[in-house]
């Protein structure tokens, strides 16, 4: 597996969610083949930034270039380049599928070969029981299975949300090691975590956001006084 990973350049980007601005005035650069980790406490906009960088959440301002594709105009092309392995909520393996069913479904959808799946499993260093239910796997193995099924199609980049959620330290180390192996193919890994690993990682810290103050709506009596 030899992949040309995506490069990302963002200047002054901002995005808005249902509850207001989720990140603003953000500059970042991600080199091809990097392990880039968006870090910060829950609620700082980590998932939203993953969505924005992959063309799945429109920006309200700023400049974002992904391997020569400028968003939002070329968001469709960027979505083809960067594929989600896990995004919460909404994009995770089905717990009640057996591992063999999850593999068969991904092969059907993406058209990858059994050989490509086997190589991807070897890349992240797991050998899951094909007869087990997905939710019977250890959380680290379950996450790495999702990663393997995604990289089997050789995208230019992948998204992995909440890498360290619910994992003890040893299991986190296993997952980060697997993601580093993915980057050795040239693929870019965009991940999010509360506690990023040390070493050869591009950390993108997100500050805690102050909640927006709601605009006060005057009631009828206050309107009369204001007049």
Automatic annotation (TrEMBL):
Keywords, ordered alphabetically: ATP-binding, Nucleotide-binding
Pfam families membership: ABC_tran
Compositional bias ranges of the Basic and acidic residues kind: 209-227
SMART domains in UniProt: AAA
Domain AAA+ ATPase: 32-223
Ranges for region Disordered: 193-227
Molecular function as annotated in GO: ATP binding; ATP hydrolysis activity; transmembrane transporter activity
InterPro entries, A to Z: AAA+_ATPase, ABC_transporter-like_ATP-bd, ABC_transpr_LolD-like, P-loop_NTPase
A cellular component annotation (GO) from this entry: plasma membrane
Superkingdom, natural source: Bacteria
UniProt-listed Gene3D superfamilies: P-loop containing nucleotide triphosphate hydrolases
Name of the protein this chain belongs to: ATP-binding cassette domain-containing protein
Originating species: Saccharopolyspora elongata
């Amino acid at each position: 597996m030899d992949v040309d990973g995506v490069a990302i350049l963002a200047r002054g980007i901002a995005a808005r969610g249902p509850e207001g601005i989720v990140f603003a005035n953000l500059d970042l650069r991600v080199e091809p083949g990097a392990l880039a980790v968006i870090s910060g406490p829950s609620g700082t906009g980590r998932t939203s930034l993953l969505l924005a960088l992959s063309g799945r959440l429109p920006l309200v301002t700023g400049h974002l270039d992904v391997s020569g594709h400028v968003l939002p105009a070329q968001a469709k092309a960027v979505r083809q380049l960067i594929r989600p392995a896990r995004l919460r909520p909404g994009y995770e393996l089905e717990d009640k599928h057996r591992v063999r069913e999850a593999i068969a479904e991904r092969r059907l959808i993406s058209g990858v070969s059994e050989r490509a799946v086997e190589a991807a499993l070897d890349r992240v260093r797991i050998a899951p029981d094909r007869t087990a239910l997905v939710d019977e796997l250890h959380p680290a193995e379950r996450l790495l299975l999702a990663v393997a099924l995604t990289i089997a199609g050789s995208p230019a980049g992948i998204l992995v949300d909440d890498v360290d959620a619910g994992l003890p330290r040893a299991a986190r180390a296993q997952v980060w090691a697997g993601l580093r192996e993915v980057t050795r193919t040239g693929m870019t890994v965009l991940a999010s975590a509360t506690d990023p690993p040390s070493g050869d990682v591009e950390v993108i810290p997100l500050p805690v956001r102050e909640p927006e103050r709601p605009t006060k709506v005057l009631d009828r009596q206050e309107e009369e006084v204001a007049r």
